[in-house]
Amino acid sequence: MQENTDKITLAYEHLRENMPSIGFLSHKKRIKGYIEITNVAQYLITSGEISEQDALFILSMLMRKFSRFQKAASMTAMSLDNIGRKVMSPIGVRFAVAARRNLNLSETPHYADVPTLEEEKELE
Questions:
Q1: Which of 29, 53, 58, 122 has the highest Cβ tally under 10 A?
Q2: For residue 86, which of 121, 112, 124 has the smallest C-alpha distance?
Q3: pTM of the model
Q4: Main-chain dihedrals φ then ψ at residue 64, nearest 5 degrees
Q5: Gap between the Cα atoms of 44 and 116, Å rounded
Q6: How many angstroms separate the CA atoms of 52 and 42, rounded?
Q7: Nearest-5° angle of CA 66, CA 51, CA 57?
């Protein structure tokens, strides 16, 4: 248990330290920053350092505790219908879709890449 907590803490710090500048009210820089940081998260998943659930937890913590990431993730979620489906990493798409669902925004083609909550429960 402690080992997993340490991995999550290290991954959180790694993502936080690698968050690029989002500029001042820069739409493009915010989306670019979100894509870059979720690509790092995807790499951590692919390399086996953290699980997908750990990554979603870390991104949620960043959303609550780190204003630059919150601004970048919110801008990306609100603009998701203008972003190509293959531009973002799978974890980036999944988190952006979850943010859109929380904001009660309309569905985009990206939703086809992410299971619904009911589908996830069936898989467990």
A1: 58
A2: 112
A3: 0.84
A4: -85, -30
A5: 24
A6: 8
A7: 30
